[in-house]
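Dear H.,

Thanks for agreeing to be a second pair of eyes. The structure we're designing against is below in token form, covering all 283 positions.
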């Protein structure tokens, strides 16, 4: 019996530790915390393209940095598994702020009143009146190209734009620095539901449609005025006024001044009549 046992002990060492076939080389380096015997050296382990981060802190949460988060946990064997998922998925992010609502044509945010920043005032409700009077798309103008209207005037955008053109291209450069330069237009009349020249039985005035404005004088910074009634054809002031009257012809469809009739001795009548096909009417 002892001889058989000795023989068995002689044979066993050659077969006591059978080894399995080597496993494929791991894609990610595996390290133990204590350098356990049998774990390959770091330099001998193949690494994947993704970085493997050592998790920090007792709770096993990876440090955040850059645009993504390394998220993983430490298992009981000391192995760290790390993913490189982005910190927030696109669908989880807060939606972009909605674009501001498109402003109305009468809002300065949409490029200015009637589409022009040099016009100051506001869009107003449609103006209505008897016998065809009214302004469907009405605005109230307070300032044009830096010149204040002595009283706000209601009109349509076509008339407001013509007035702005005349002030910018004729009034401001025509007066220049005289008296410190122009600062205001003396408005004699804007919208008014009435016949022409307020004469009974006459055709409807362009004032009744928001197509006209009457200018009696141009106020200067030093407090003086170029007055149509007082200064027409009188010296340097008269020459300036005549030039401004001439410049208005074409910008407006109808331009009437002191030489047109007895109703316009004290103002310029400027309108954008829609019925004129043969050019401007200027007197």
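And this is the sequence the design step returned. I haven't edited it by hand at all.
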């Amino acid at each position: 019996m002892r001889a058989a046992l000795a023989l068995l002990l002689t044979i066993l060492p050659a077969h006591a530790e059978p080894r399995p076939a080597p496993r494929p080389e791991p894609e990610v380096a595996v390290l133990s915390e204590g350098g356990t015997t049998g774990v390959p050296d770091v330099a001998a382990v193949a690494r994947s393209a993704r970085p493997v981060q050592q998790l920090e802190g007792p709770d096993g949460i990876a440090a955040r940095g850059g645009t993504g988060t390394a998220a993983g946990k430490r298992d009981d064997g000391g192995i760290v598994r790390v993913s490189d998922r982005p910190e927030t998925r696109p669908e989880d992010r807060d939606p972009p702020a909605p674009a501001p609502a498109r402003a109305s044509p009468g809002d300065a945010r949409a490029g200015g009143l009637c589409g022009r920043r040099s016009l100051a005032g506001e869009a107003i409700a449609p103006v209505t009146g008897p016998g065809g009077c009214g302004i469907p798309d009405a605005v109230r103008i307070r300032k044009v190209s830096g010149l204040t209207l002595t009283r706000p005037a209601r009109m349509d955008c076509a008339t407001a734009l013509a007035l702005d053109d005349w002030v910018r291209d004729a009034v401001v450069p025509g007066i220049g620095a005289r008296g410190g330069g122009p600062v205001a237009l003396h408005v004699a009349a804007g919208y008014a539901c009435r016949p022409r020249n307020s004469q009974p039985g006459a055709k409807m005035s362009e004032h009744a449609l928001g197509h006209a404005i009457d200018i009696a004088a141009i106020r200067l910074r030093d407090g003086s005025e170029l007055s149509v009634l007082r200064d027409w054809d009188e010296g340097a002031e008269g020459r300036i006024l005549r030039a401004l009257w001439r410049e208005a012809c074409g910008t407006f469809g109808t331009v009437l001044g002191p030489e047109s009739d007895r109703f316009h001795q004290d103002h310029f009548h400027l309108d954008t009549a829609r019925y004129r096909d043969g050019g401007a009417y200027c007197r």
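Two observations from my side: The domain at 108-282 is CATH 3.30.1380 (Muramoyl-pentapeptide Carboxypeptidase; domain 2). The chain has a mean pLDDT of 74.

Warmly,
E.
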